[in-house]
Structures are given as structure tokens and as C-alpha cells.
């Protein structure tokens, strides 16, 4: 059926066809999109900051597995989204950014807010397109959605010039269904990889973010078949049950010292859905200098060429299914015992540390994580930042994603404020409770959109580790010798610099003493259940950092000798 409708009506109608209920953004001055949205079932979350809108849409996409959509204006409105695009690109978040653009009749005339928007975003998206003719709008929408959710998922960009936004568009309904394709690895590549895997007696499985939202239990079954230790990258957490006996923690920078022996003795590493970024491979040049790495990815750009081994192009879960069907000898009992022994040591070290800080004054982050594990439901979604103190949650077993718990973390770009904003999108995408563990620096960057979450009645719990500002920088500064403290990155009055907004929809809880932890976290969850946005502020000391990151140089810890 052919019909004619306004350009924004076409866009909104297509998003509704995809089944989207929520989109994010800050519309352009003409507000034409609002008229189209008013006659639809789609809710627009109007943000105060375009960067936050991209972060929210990413949180929505990563939690739901659906397309996240963001709508913004032109020029500086578009440039404000660049940090969000950078994060979505590295996270592999299926995201559609739609921006207004200068009309073709004004290009090159120094028109108001004119910018070469395609050139700005192209390096950060899978596909970018400017709709220059109304006949190309439907085609562009269908291709953009297809590109975002297939292959290596990621953001795409559509630019709607002003002259197209003002025209009627001829549409042939219904739209084409959005296809989700699977990429099967070749049998010969899988067999070549299996030759390497099957000869190993001390295997390690490394699970990356590309394995999120897959078939539950499949990876664990392969680990049992092989007798393999399971590690994840930071972004891969939640893809496997961390209560599994073979789960050993997070790879690279976040590996517990007790688990180093496993990496040093491993004779093959099977990497599923990971780009093997620097944090995941920290110390590999020392521990895995001669160990073959089998990499499985759906996108060519995701393969690392720093390591020798076999590369398999295709879906990681299909590769796992294939290898599960192959005959394999009994797992090496000594290797299983080694894994169990190292894991027990990691838990003993954690418990000893908890006992140690329990005798000290003030609340420690490890104690907060322990209380969160005990007091919050098994199915909660934890959204994290990557600051000095909230980074404690990356160090297994200090926090464990068990049962139905789900994790969202920033990419290796670690854009400050991502987790605080992404939590809003996650809460809209899923009925499970959402808890955001953030630093005060990140939370303050996000605060312009705290009222956005309140206005739309989005319940959340923020656990804010308050060290007075930018603790990562201050911690490094404290290791240097600057007489008289001419520079400072944190406030001497941490609680005062927070300035959490006063509103009936916001509940602020401050935890000052250890004895309050469990009771106040239970109170926070009760207020959350009453549809409140809860901000729990926990003052923490700058020196309260995990042992693995005590020695920092620049943006990365130095090697442990």
C-alpha cells in the first residue's frame, strides 16, 4: 500500500514498526518530531544533555538487545553526541542516531549551525548517511537498523536535512522486516581451531562482551567438557554464571593475584567475542608469551594481531555448539585441582581483607560491595563506572554476578559519566532493579539529567563512592612531590560538593558508619520499590584502592614485579 506522509511521521512509524517503546534525545528547534511522536505509542525521554542521551540509549540497547535510538538537532547538538558515539562504538551497542542537518539549498553559505556532520561521525559509526532525496528515506532507515544489529553490533548515523524534513514522503507499506542474521564460522576454521584446543590440557576460556545476551549455560558446558578455567573481560561479565566452579574472575588488569598461576600455566586461551583490548590483556606479554590464542569474532576489525594462534570468523555461540559436538578426552584432573586451589585462595584473600578493614574506622568500598551482594536481589542489574573506587567491583570475588544478575560497564574508552546515564536507559529496558555504582566525579557530570530520570518516574539506586572529586588523578598526584599542594582534584569537604537536587522523587541516604551499611541499603531498596530515585552517598578515602592498582603511572597501573 502506497501512501504519503511527512518525513518525521515516516521515521516514527518505522520505529514503531520495529517495536520500540522508548527513544532518547533533545530535538531540534523546529520540534517537528514531537508532532509525529504525539500520535504514536513511543515515549521520548527528553534529556538535558545530548551526550547523556547517547549514554542512556546505549544502556537501553545493551540491556534489551533492541535498537537504541537517539534524536538530536544539528551542529553543536550533534557534536555533543560524539563522546556517546565513541563509547557506543567501542561497546558494540546497536544504536541509531538521527540528527537534523542543514538543507542542501544552504550548504556552503555559512548557514546557522552548518557543519560537516558526516565527516565528524564517520570514524565512530558502522554506517553514516545523509538523506538527500525523500525517496531514499525508507531505504536509509531500513539499512541503518540492519547495519546496527547485525555483524559486530554498533552505532549508525542518519542525517535528515531540513529540506527533506519539510517534504512529504511516498511510502510503500508495510516496511521490510528487520532481519537478524547469524554468521556461521566455516567448518574448516572450526576444525583447525579444535586441533589446537583438543591438544591442550590446561585450557582457559575468555568470554568477551560480544557473548552477552546469548544462550545461557552453553559456555559453561564447553568449559566442563574441556576442563577449562572461565574468565571474562570486564564487558563480558553477566554472560556466564559466576557461581560456576570453573569461573575464575576477570582477565588482565582485574585478575586476582591468586589466579595468576592459572594464566601462567595455561597452554591455550580460547577468546570468544572479545577485541582483546589492553585492560583484558594486561600482563599477557609476561604470562602468555608462548601460549596460542584462539580468537572467535563476528567482525574482522575485532581480531587482535598481537598474538599467535587461530582466528575464527563467525558467531561465538555457533562455534561453541560445534565444539560441544566433538569428541574430547576427559579433562586433566591436576588442572581442575589447580583451578579449584587458586579460586579457594582468592576467596580466602578476599575474606581476610574484609576482616582486616572491618577493624579500621570508616567505610571501605569492599564492605559496601559485600553488603550490596547480601541486601540487593539476585536479579539486579549493576551498572558500573571505571573510577578509582568504583573499580573495586571489577575485582572478582569482591563482587559476583550470580544467577540472573546482569552487568553494564563502560568500554575501554571509560567515558566519565557513562554508567550514571546508562543506568537510566537500562531501567527503562528491563523490569529488574537497576543499581549504578559510580564515583562522585562521574555522578556530578551526569547530574544535569538527574531531573530527567525523576520527571519520567524512572526508579534507580545510585551508590555514589564520594572521595571529593576526581580521585584517580588525586591518587596519582599524592604519589608525586609538589610542595604546598598547588594542585588539587578533590574537595576538602566531599559531602558539600555533591549538591544532590532536593525533590520529592529523590531520596538521599548518607552512610557514614560501617554499622549502618546493611540497614541503609535495605532502606534504599525499600524506597526504590516505592518508585523513588535513591542516591546513596558513601564517603570513602582516596587511599582505599585495590592492591592491583596501587601503583599508577598515567592512565594505567604499572606492572607488578
Automatic annotation (TrEMBL):
Residues 397-537 form the Thiamine pyrophosphate enzyme TPP-binding domain. SUPFAM superfamilies: DHS-like NAD/FAD-binding domain, Thiamin diphosphate-binding fold (THDP-binding). It comes from the Bacteria. Residues 7-120 form the Thiamine pyrophosphate enzyme N-terminal TPP-binding domain. The keyword DNA-binding does not apply. Residues 191-315 form the Thiamine pyrophosphate enzyme central domain. Gene3D superfamilies: 3.40.50.970, TPP-binding domain (3.40.50.1220). Keywords: Thiamine pyrophosphate. Belongs to the TPP enzyme family. This is Thiamine pyrophosphate-binding protein. The lineage of its organism: Bacteria, Bacillati, Bacillota, Bacilli, Bacillales.
Amino acid at each position: 500500500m502506497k501512501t504519503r506522509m511527512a518525513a518525521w511521521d515516516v521515521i516514527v512509524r518505522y520505529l514503531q514498526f520495529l517495536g520500540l517503546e522508548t527513544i532518547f534525545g533533545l530535538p531540534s528547534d523546529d520540534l517537528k518530531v514531537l508532532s509525529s511522536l504525539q500520535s504514536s505509542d513511543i515515549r521520548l525521554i527528553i534529556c538535558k544533555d545530548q551526550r547523556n542521551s547517547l549514554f542512556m540509549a546505549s544502556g537501553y540497547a545493551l540491556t534489551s538487545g533492541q535498537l537504541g535510538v537517539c534524536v538530536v538537532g544539528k551542529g553543536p547538538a550533534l557534536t555533543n553526541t560524539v563522546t556517546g558515539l565513541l563509547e557506543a562504538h567501542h561497546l558494540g551497542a546497536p544504536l541509531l542516531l538521527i540528527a537534523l542537518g542543514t538543507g542542501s539549498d544552504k550548504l556552503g553559505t555559512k548557514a546557522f549551525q552548518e557543519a560537516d556532520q558526516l565527516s565528524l561521525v564517520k570514524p565512530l559509526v558502522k554506517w553514516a548517511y545523509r538523506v538527500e532525496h525523500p525517496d531514499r528515506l525508507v531505504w536509509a532507515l531500513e539499512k541503518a537498523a540492519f547495519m546496527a544489529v547485525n555483524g559486530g553490533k554498533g552505532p549508525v548515523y542518519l542525517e535528515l536535512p531540513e529540506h527533506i524534513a519539510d517534504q512529504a514522503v511516498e511510502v510503500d507499506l508495510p516496511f521490510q522486516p528487520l532481519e537478524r542474521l547469524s554468521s556461521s564460522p566455516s567448518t574448516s576454521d572450526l576444525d583447525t581451531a579444535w586441533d589446537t584446543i583438543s591438544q591442550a590440557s590446561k585450557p582457559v576460556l575468555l568470554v568477551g562482551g560480544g557473548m552477552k545476551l546469548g544462550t545461557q549455560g552453553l559456555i559453561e558446558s564447553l568449559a566442563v567438557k574441556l576442563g577449562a578455567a572461565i574468565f571474562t573481560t570486564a564487558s563480558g561479565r553477566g554472560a556466564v554464571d559466576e557461581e560456576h566452579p570453573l569461573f575464575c574472575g576477570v582477565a588482565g588488569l582485574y585478575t586476582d593475584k591468586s589466579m595468576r598461576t592459572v594464566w601462567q600455566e595455561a597452554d591455550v586461551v580460547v577468546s570468544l567475542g572479545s577485541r582483546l583490548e589492553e585492560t583484558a590483556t594486561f600482563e599477557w606479554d609476561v604470562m602468555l608469551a608462548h601460549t596460542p590464542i584462539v580468537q572467535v569474532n563476528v567482525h574482522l576489525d575485532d581480531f587482535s594481531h598481537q598474538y599467535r594462534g587461530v582466528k575464527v570468523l563467525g558467531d561465538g555461540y555457533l562455534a561453541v555448539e560445534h565444539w560441544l559436538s566433538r569428541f574430547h578426552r576427559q579433562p586433566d584432573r591436576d588442572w581442575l585441582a589447580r583451578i579449584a586451589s587458586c579460586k579457594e585462595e582468592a576467596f580466602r584473600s578476599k575474606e581476610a581483607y574484609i576482616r582486616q578493614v572491618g577493624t579500621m574506622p570508616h567505610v571501605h568500598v569492599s564492605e559496601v560491595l559485600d553488603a550490596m551482594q547480601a541486601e540487593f536481589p539476585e536479579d539486579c542489574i549493576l551498572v558500573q563506572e571505571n573510577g578509582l573506587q568504583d573499580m573495586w567491583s571489577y575485582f572478582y570475588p569482591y563482587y559476583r554476578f550470580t544467577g540472573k544478575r546482569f552487568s553494564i560497564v563502560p568500554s575501554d574508552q571509560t567515558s566519565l559519566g557513562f554508567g550514571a546515564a546508562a543506568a537510566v536507559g537500562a531501567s527503562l529496558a528491563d523490569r529488574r532493579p537497576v543499581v549504578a555504582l559510580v564515583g562522585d566525579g562521574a555522578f556530578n557530570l551526569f547530574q544535569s539529567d538527574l531531573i530527567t530520570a525523576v520527571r519520567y518516574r524512572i526508579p534507580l539506586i545510585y551508590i555514589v563512592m564520594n572521595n571529593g572529586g576526581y580521585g584517580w588523578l588525586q591518587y596519582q598526584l599524592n604519589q608525586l612531590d609538589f610542595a604546598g599542594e598547588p594542585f588539587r582534584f578533590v574537595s576538602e569537604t566531599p559531602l558539600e560538593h555533591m549538591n544532590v537536587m532536593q525533590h520529592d522523587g529523590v531520596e538521599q541516604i548518607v552512610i557514614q558508619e560501617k554499622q549502618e551499611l546493611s540497614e541503609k541499603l535495605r532502606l534504599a531498596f525499600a524506597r526504590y520499590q516505592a518508585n523513588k530515585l535513591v542516591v546513596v552517598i558513601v564517603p570513602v578515602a582516596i587511599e582505599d584502592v585495590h592492591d592491583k592498582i596501587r601503583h599508577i603511572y598515567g592512565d594505567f597501573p604499572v606492572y607488578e614485579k
